[in-house]
Design brief:
Elements lengths: L30 H11 L6 H11 L5 H13 L6 H13 L10 H8 L6 H12 L4 H8 L2 H6 L11 H8 L12 H4 L25 H14 L49 H10 L6 H13 L14 H7 L1 H10 L6 H10 L4 H13 L4 H17 L3 H20 L9 H10 L4 H12 L2
Length: about 450
């Protein structure tokens, strides 16, 4: 972040009370989300209901619409997924949004169910899934795996329903042709164009293609670097021609001005501003500060919170500050919460080595400011993975106790929605149920069901 940021560029104290911006970027999918997508659809041998449960556990609610748009993007081209993988993707689009009043992907599912160019097994599966979406028969379907369904032959005798009956079943208005459509939208070109010289079929739906790793890399690159809405033509708006100058009308003269302005950047610059706090923060990154020095930083930031932009703290120095002086880290981060560079500090906090001080910083931050839900969930997932991967039993037990106490504090203070991480935290408690704190956390989860 820049240390010479102007005072007007920083957020006001009133703005510090506003909720923080979402932690997730607004572009395409992140790299870990692309891996989750490809991992979900590749499980063709496990029950479909497990894929839906994984989707709900891995993807937070605020990212599910963008995740579903990415799934619909890879379904448009039959070369991106194998037939059995496509069945899993369709189930995720339908079941992953079953709790909503209107599923935005129902029109896409109906179009795919009536697509005569698709395989008969895919059409029959989709129609069976759409008709029994809320019935007991739907549960029986989801207990099967995509592989088992493709191996079966029951779909061969299934009678396919016409489009109007499927739309009537869902009272679907969105699939009807719109009375007005933009010419620019009609001329949009998809980001992924199929090669006419390459077969658009994977052949046997159950065989593993030798090009699958390369295909996964291509799909992941498309989801991260291209627009899911396609490439629309540019709206060219040429400037209008000038009006002719009438006789007797004054004419505007554009004089040639070749003068150059020479600025003295050092004039009126306060070079001493922030020197004291910058020196103290630099020492805080190298070792523990004395109590009077910590109080000096807190007092200076309380008098002028904009000094945080001159303290010299960068994301790379944050882990050292957290380990040596966690209270100073909390004070500085709470003032930087609305900074445009805050996402870089969140990434460092998520990926740094888990410790008592790092959890103390996160716990204090949750009580001081509003943190993005995605950041808190990523940090909890990293803590759980760290506890599972550590080999030293003594250190593992100690870290598990710390994580359990940390999670109980977040749940009791209603900092997190436990339903978003219920499956992951419950599995963590079961694995370490021999530890008293893990058993207490498991009982707390059960009481919230």
């Amino acid at each position: 972040m820049s240390h010479e940021k102007d005072d007007a560029a920083g957020p006001s104290p009133a703005a510090a009370a506003k909720p923080a911006a979402p932690y997730a970027p607004m572009g395409g999918l992140r790299a870990d989300e692309c891996s989750d997508l490809l991992g979900l659809v590749s499980g063709v041998s496990r029950p479909l209901e497990d894929a839906v449960a994984d989707f709900l556990a891995r993807v937070p609610p605020e990212r599910r619409l963008r995740f579903g748009s990415a799934v619909s993007f890879v379904l448009e081209d039959k070369m991106m997924l194998r037939p059995a993988e496509r069945l899993i993707a369709f189930v995720i689009l339908l079941q992953g949004y079953s709790s909503q009043l209107e599923n935005p992907f129902v029109p896409l599912l109906i179009n795919a169910a009536c697509d005569e160019t698709s395989e008969k097994a895919e059409q029959a599966f989709l129609q069976l899934l759409l008709i029994s979406a809320n019935g007991d028969n739907n549960k029986e379907i989801l207990k099967q795996s995509a592989e088992d369904y493709m191996k079966g032959s029951n779909y061969a005798s299934q009678v396919l329903l016409p489009r109007d009956q499927l739309e009537k079943h869902y009272s679907c208005v969105a699939v009807q042709p719109q009375p007005y459509s933009s010419s620019f939208r009609a001329a949009t070109v998809r980001s992924a164009v199929p090669d006419p010289d390459v077969s658009q079929s994977f052949g046997d739906s159950l065989e593993v293609s030798p090009a699958k790793p390369n295909r996964d890399n291509v799909v992941s690159s498309l989801l991260q670097q291209t627009s899911l809405k396609g490439l629309a033509p540019q709206w060219i708006r040429p400037p209008p021609p000038r009006l002719e100058i009438l006789e007797g009308e004054l004419q505007w003269l554009n004089l040639d001005n070749s003068h150059e302005l020479l600025w003295d950047g050092s004039m009126c610059a306060d070079t001493s501003r922030g020197a004291t706090i910058r020196d103290l923060v630099g020492r805080a990154c190298k070792g523990p500060l004395a109590p009077p020095q910590q109080e000096q930083i807190v007092l200076d930031l309380a008098k002028d919170w904009k000094l945080v932009y001159h303290c010299g703290l960068t994301p790379q120095k944050l882990p050292d500050l957290v380990e040596h002086n966690p209270l100073i880290a909390v004070e500085v981060l709470s003032k930087l919460i609305n900074s445009p560079d805050m996402d870089a500090y969140f990434d460092i906090l998520v990926h740094m080595e888990m410790s008592l001080h790092s959890m103390e910083v996160i716990n204090r931050l949750t009580n001081a400011v509003v943190l993005p839900p995605g950041f808190i969930h990523d940090y909890i997932s990293n803590c759980i993975r760290t506890c599972e991967d550590i080999k030293d039993k003594y250190m593992q037990n100690r870290l598990v106790r710390l994580v359990c106490v940390f999670l109980q504090s977040l749940i009791r203070n209603k900092i997190i929605n436990v339903q978003d991480l219920f499956l992951e935290v419950q599995a963590f408690c079961i694995v370490f149920s021999r530890i008293r704190e893990a058993a207490a956390l498991f009982r707390l989860l059960k009481s919230l069901e």
